[in-house]
Amino acid sequence: RRQQEAADAELAAKIDGQRAAATAEGASTEQILDFAEGVSVAFESGAVGRGKVSADLAGEAEALLAAQPPSIDVAIVAGRLLAATGRSEEAATRWLEALAAGAPLEVFDAIVSLPRGSVADQAVLQGCAMIRPQIDETGVPSFVQLCLERANGDAAKLAWKGVDRDLAAYEAELRRLEAEAAAQAAAQAEVSARMSLYATASVFAAGDCRFNDCAKDGWETALPSGGAAVTNCRFNDCLKEGWETSFPDGNSAVTNCRFNDCFKDGWETSLPDGSSAVTYCRFNDCMKDGWETSLPDGGSVVCSCRFNDCLKDGTECN
């Protein structure tokens, strides 16, 4: 709070100095512009709302600006003062005057920043036609998108030289972005499917036990894409130490028993992409009743013991 009060006091003192210079005999346009901008800052910063700077200064600054010869700078500053005091429609009109006289792109951005409304949207559309020569080719698609939004999607309202070419560039960019998004979605789906496959293959005895002893020697799981995932027990004791599953593509998944007792408390499998799959024993007896694994994508795999003996006869999972 003290910092705010100090900042307000400093701003008020600065504006007092600017006002004195702007109202002195023979004051220059630059001094008047400085005063008007200072008042704008007072409104924008909230100093006026906090009672630290008088709101009446806005009228005084506006009158001084009105007495100046027309110029781009005067129109820009007058527009800022109008916007700062809540007169957005009038601000748009002054800024359009500045654009018509050759004001830079930043003035168009100021019009765009005004609160949305029919008048503001129409001002943006007018500004689009004026400012188009300042837009480089790489910025055309986003520029057209902005102008179309203010035209409520009606391309017929866009009126500048070469608009058809710009619309074609915008549509081409849309198609490119759609194709890129589709490719990313497909790639993500492929990764998710692969992780689900990894998680499924890593489930205990999710395949044929090696040497008829999954708990000691691990198992092999045939993959839909061909090849097999090979699982080895860590320290020859899957039930306590967990296991590691290796896949044909070189990736691997590591499984750790929860509380060092896989067949009572379940296990957690760390997948190659950093996600994990968590398994819980059904009825706290995995060896007899099977288990359920929650996959990273929200799906699940339920495994039942063959002949009620997962250790010897393996599982059936779906």
Provide tags for this entry.
318 residues, 53% helix, alpha+beta, 14 helices, elongated, single chain, ten-stranded antiparallel beta sheet
Briefly characterize the structure:
By secondary structure, the protein is an alpha+beta fold. It is built from 14 helices and ten strands. Helix 2 (29-45) packs parallel to helix 4 (72-84), helix 3 (57-66) packs antiparallel against helix 4 and helix 8 crosses helix 9.
Would you count the extended β strands for me? 10
Radius of gyration: 35 Å
- Indicate the structural class: alpha+beta
Q: How confident overall, as mean pLDDT? A: 91
Shape: elongated
What percent of residues adopt helix (DSSP H or I)?
Answer: 40-55%
What composes the largest sheet?
10 strands, antiparallel
Q: What is the strand arrangement across the widest sheet?
A: 1-2-3-4-5-6-7-8-9-10
Which H/E pattern describes the elements?
A: HHHHHHHHHEHEEHEEHEEHEEHE
How would you name the oligomeric state of the polypeptide chains in this document?
single chain
Tally the helices: what do you get? 14
Structure description:
The chain is α+β, with helices and mostly antiparallel strands. It has a domain at 204-317. It has helices at 2-23, 29-45, 57-66, 72-84, 88-100, 105-112, 118-131, 140-150, 163-202, 214-217, 238-241, 262-265, 286-289, 310-313; strands at 208-209, 219-222, 228-233, 243-246, 252-257, 267-270, 276-281, 291-294, 300-305, 315-317. The chain has a ten-stranded antiparallel beta sheet with strand order 1-2-3-4-5-6-7-8-9-10. The longest helix has 40 residues, at 163-202. The protein is elongated, with a radius of gyration of 35 Å. The model has no long low-confidence stretch (mean pLDDT 91).
